[in-house]
Amino acid sequence: FEDAQSRGENERLEPGRGETAAGKQEALRRSLGEAMRQLGERGQEIPDALGRAERLMRDARDDLEQGRPDRAVDPQAEALQQLQQGAEAVMNEMMAQQEGERPGQSGQPRRAEDGRDPLGRLPPGDGDDPSGYVEIPRKSDVQRSREILNELYRRAGERGRPEPEREYIDRLLRWY
Length: 176
Fold this sequence. Notes:
mainly alpha
């Protein structure tokens, strides 16, 4: 009987093994623990909110193991709030670290201070950067282009035009 009881306890605690809510809660808690460990290994500060979330997740797991899912709801909800606060703190720290670096130092895309967007593109009108923004033509621009193209087709069909002019029109049409 003791073996069956301890085996049942282990099944509830091992992530991914059982279908129990306590096992799933424990798997989430362990994932958070792993994420906190990785933050520490990278030299980042582990926010207090993540530690609080981990403790609340453990409390929720204990309530679920005792067959009291009604008591697990509050710690789970509070753990979610703490996770959000912790994630925000991690992002703020990462951004602060990035702000302290010079452009190109970390291999990251250039920052907005040098006039480029996060993908390194120049804003419209800044140089001849081919990776710059593409302006979407207005309806009148599209209509005007269509009229020019129709005129080129009409002139290309006129065999009475001089040969150099027809060749030039053909080159323009190939470009379109």
